Each structure stands twice: as structure tokens, then as C-alpha cells.
Amino acid sequence: MKVGKKRKEAEAKYDNTKSYTLLEACNILKQISTTKFDASVDIDVRLGVDPRQANQMVRGVASLPHGLGKVVRTLVLCTPDKEEEAKAAGADHVGLDDYIEKIAGGWTDIDIIIAVPSVMAKLGRLGKILGPRNLMPNPKSGTVTMEVGKAVTEVKAGKIDFKVDKTGIIHTSVGKVSFDADKLSENALELVQVLHRLKPSAAKGTYFRSIFMSSTMSPSVSIDVKSIPGI
Fold this sequence. Notes:
The strands form three sheets. The chain has a five-stranded mixed sheet with strand order 1-10-9-2-8. It is built from eight helices and ten strands. It is globular. The chain is of the alpha/beta class.
């Protein structure tokens, strides 16, 4: 496969056979990002788990100390008595039946759906639409709750929901290239430490198999797992 000029220039700025600390990797990513827009910085964590086993599923939430640097579009599905609370917290869309029909018609122009428990039965038929997009509200991620105002505030501030995929990898964003390297590093550290706390007791052998960080369209940078404090 032909490697473009910008890609070659980026790869020349670091050693892709070496593993780096989180802070070093974040500094490298800021140097090698070539997009004209403010690219997202992503992290891929390969875990030593078998997601096919229910007792090895890794899913949870992390509150990134410096947020994601992007607008999080929220939909709150609730009963009328909760609508003002959701709107006051800054929810982008608030309602119920109209939005359920809209989603059934293919609309998914949102990042997070928050729902009160009593309306979850109505969302069952939307599983095939919401599931693959990781939009289905879930009590474990705090998106099925009576405290809709608090939930909206948290996701707007940088709370992320993650779930291991079928290959054992957690993939999520931890900020933007425009962030200071130390802030990107602190966001990534928070996620990794949360994953460490969520290690299933049934998981055997090495838990953190590999960690890579990249920005949109950039090469990936390997992270030295042993250099990460608290894991």
C-alpha cells in the first residue's frame, strides 16, 4: 500500500517500534496531526478478556477531568413532569412519543439518550436501531435515571460511556488535538484507571494487552503499560 507524503513525515517524527508514556504519546500526537480541523484523540485498549462470557464483559463510565472538547447532543426521553428539569440542565431534545417515532423512522442525530425508567418499555422496539450505535440507555452507564438533570450535566461535562467490543478492545475518544498534552494525558489516565478498577475477577493472565493512541487520520502511538501509574 502506498504511503502518502504527510504520513511519511508524521512517522519520521517518532519511533513507531517504541512504546511511550501517556504524556509523551500525547505530545507526539500533537506534532503528527495533519488535519486542518481539530481532530479527535482516540485510545484503543486491548484487554485480556473474552467478551462472549458474561462474567468478562467490561462496560462502564468515566468522567474525563477535562471533558471531550466537543458538543454532546443529548436527548431526554421522559414523562412531562421531568421535562423542565431536563431542559434546565441543557438537554438538546426533550420529549417522548414523538422522538420514539422519529428514531423508528431512522433519526439518530444525537450522541447520548437519557431516559427515565418508566419509559424504557417503549424503547424495546428500537433496539436494532439504538444498539449498534451504542445509544440505548442503560442503568449501568447512568443513562436510565430519575435524575435526568444531573445526568445531562455530567455527559455535557465529559462523562463517557464505554463497552468492550467482540474482539476485546475498548475504543473511545479522550479529547481533541488542540488540548494541552498534559490534559489529554490526564483524560487518558482517568479512563485507564477506571478500566483497571473494572477488571473482571474471571479474567486471567495479562489484563492490559496493549494500548494505542491516535488522532483522526494519524498513525498510532504505542503506550508503555508499565509506565501508567495506578494499574
